[in-house]
Design brief:
Length: about 240
């Protein structure tokens, strides 16, 4: 049964442009000790200008990319109208695809104040649409997503895109970084589900620096191991490792 036969067509006025959506049938093994029920995970990379989304089906030790794309309100709309555009199109996407769970990237504080405010407002519209659809929402930090997919929390967007391409097929990267990041968020949830980490004891600055160096070495090693698992040759592994530094 194809993915298209599992979902009903959305209302015509909510359809995303065809060039913004891609549907795939590639899959990659997901290691687990027992059979699991079919779960469709919607990954979302929030943004007020571009919101990326990726739908990943997880079932019986396999992940399959069903659909990915971007919601682009357009610069001609006012900011409140952009938020409404995101809200409406996300509702249509949920009604069309019928996801069971949603994975959302948490706020990244490295942006400027104005961008952060707009991002938070866009996330508010997204969360409201998801809550209105009565879907469970899970949040993951950007470093956590990169660590789950690439093996290193400081991985570049190019490295994330490379791993998504290797795991789910080259067509998965055709929509740009926003869609790729959304797919990575969905994969992070598929691999980790809910990862709860309590606050640790704060060490002195020297100890923190030493631990950061150790952690960086461990992440580098995990990234190289992941590349080996998917059959990347030594020369390409060295080039990808240099690119992430």
């Amino acid at each position: 049964m194809s993915p298209d036969s599992l979902i009903s067509p959305p209302p015509s006025h909510f359809l995303l442009p065809r060039e913004l959506v891609w549907t795939a049938t590639s899959c990659t093994p997901f290691h687990t000790s027992k059979k699991v029920a079919r779960v469709i995970i919607l990954g979302i990379d929030p943004g007020s200008v571009v919101t990326g989304f990726g739908l990943v089906e997880h079932q019986n030790r396999k992940n399959r990319l069903l659909q990915c794309g971007c919601i682009r309100p357009g610069n001609k709309l006012s900011f409140p109208q952009r938020l409404l555009y995101i809200y409406d199109h996300l509702l249509a996407l949920v009604a069309d695809a019928g996801p069971h769970e949603v994975a959302l990237e948490s706020v990244f504080y490295g942006v400027n104040t104005q961008s952060l405010i707009k991002l938070c407002q866009a996330r508010g519209a997204i969360v409201t649409a998801l809550a209105n659809s009565d879907l469970p929402i899970f949040e993951y930090a950007p470093r956590e997503v990169k660590r789950a997919v690439v093996g290193r929390g400081s991985a570049s967007k190019e490295q994330v895109q490379f791993m998504i391409q290797r795991l789910l097929g080259k067509e998965a990267v055709g929509q740009g970084f926003d869609a790729t990041d959304a797919v990575a968020i969905a994969l992070c949830h598929a691999h980790q589900k809910v990862a709860v980490r309590g606050p640790g004891i704060r060490q002195n600055k020297l100890a923190e620096k030493i631990e950061a160096l150790k952690k960086g070495g461990r992440e580098q090693s995990r990234f190289d191991e992941k590349l080996k698992e998917i059959g990347v040759d030594a020369r390409l592994r060295r080039r990808l490792n240099r690119r992430g530094r």
